[in-house]
Amino acid sequence: MIPSSLPQEASAAWELLLPAAAAPARARGRSLQSALREAVRSGRLTPGTRLPSSRDLAGDLGVSRGLVTDAYEQLTAEGYLRSGRGAGTWVSDAVRAAAPAVRDLSPRRPGDSRVDFVAGRPDLSMFPRTAWSAAQRAVLADLPHEQLGYPDPRGLPRLRTALAELLTRRRGVVADPERIVVCSGVTQAVTLLGIVLHARGERAVGVEDPGSPQYEELFATAGPRVVRLPMDDEGLALGPLRASGVRAVVTTPGHHFPSGIAYSADRRAGLLAWARETGGIVVEDDYDGDFRYDRAPVGALQGLDPDRVAYTGSVSKSLVPGLRLGWLVVPDGLADEVVARKQYMDLGNPTLDQAVLAHFMERGDYDRQLRRCQRAYKERRDVLLSALETYLPGTRVSGIAAGLHAIATLPEHYGPERRLLERCAEAGVTVRPLSAYGRAETAGVSLVLGYAHVPPARITEGVRLLAEAARPSGGRPA
After folding, report:
1. pLDDT tens-digit profile of 154-166?
2. What range(s) does the HTH gntR-type domain occupy (predicted)?
């Protein structure tokens, strides 16, 4: 029964107060406050609702008047309620009901009910749980207590030393541990550089076109605006770069996304010459740099001029993105400013995670993981190529020498692009066209097909479904 003292508009909140009245005596006051607070937050007691007097509500609930008075006073102090002498107690107009549910903003899990060829993800099931757990146990047993405090904003010296050895050996980076900053992935590394460059007066940053679509929003947060610069067969086109007037550019010279090319030696030299002539800086995102299948990976551009190239990478593809661990090898001239920004941004990355990654690298587990991934991803690439040849003959495939995706350019009769994508979606295949990443000047429809996260059998099935979607019901090409 709803008590007569409770206004009709507040009746929906009444059941929330009943458990509070029945709580043990010592907890009854806190319970009543929590119940009233939740009724306001949830919107059951809406802004402007007048509550019964403390005397009436106490009588209806069977509790002391002082307990209700205390609850009203506490929630008034917190801003949930308002009151005035002789005017009663009301739900504050400043309170807004919470959203009815929390949305899951994480990417959709690949393979749940579709074949998902969207590029940019590794196979999360390949995370080396056993070796990582062993590293965690070893670190927890040996880590000194004093290292559990706020870390050096650059990162644990142990991890920076391990990273310097790894990057020098595998990628040809000039990696002094004092110039390495441990970051929450490449995104934070590039954001830090954007903030520092903007503070120095740089109002624009060049990015590759086509390229990663995230840079507009990323640099909008950091400060500089983005200038898209065209690519050609050798890398970033130098003429438009010089004409743009920018003095900072983000590049993927070891393995461009999404085309898959490696910058030519001449283009790498030309890019460094531009940086020296203008006093500019090249930000090298070593995208998928460790995964090359035809020969040894191309060495990092940074090794040719450490004072003009800021180098960044992460374990997002080699281990898992959820670790949020990456690195930035920063030129001496920017080091102090980047470290200062990093300190104020987050006070450093988690100590335990850094120590575990360092241990993982020191024992050779990271190299073993890279070799394991290399074998698995090469197998999946080969399965993709075979399936495309079988089900979509005449398709031209590029960008297959390295990385975790390929570009499949279908013959022109499989278009138009928009209708093809609609049919793929109807068939249960998720794909993205090259045009989604910027300029696409190829004839026919070009699809960027990520394969690392898709099991081999699903790759074959996905290409079969894609081929069926590319044909109308009559079975002939569209």
Report:
1. 999 999 999 999 9
2. 26-94
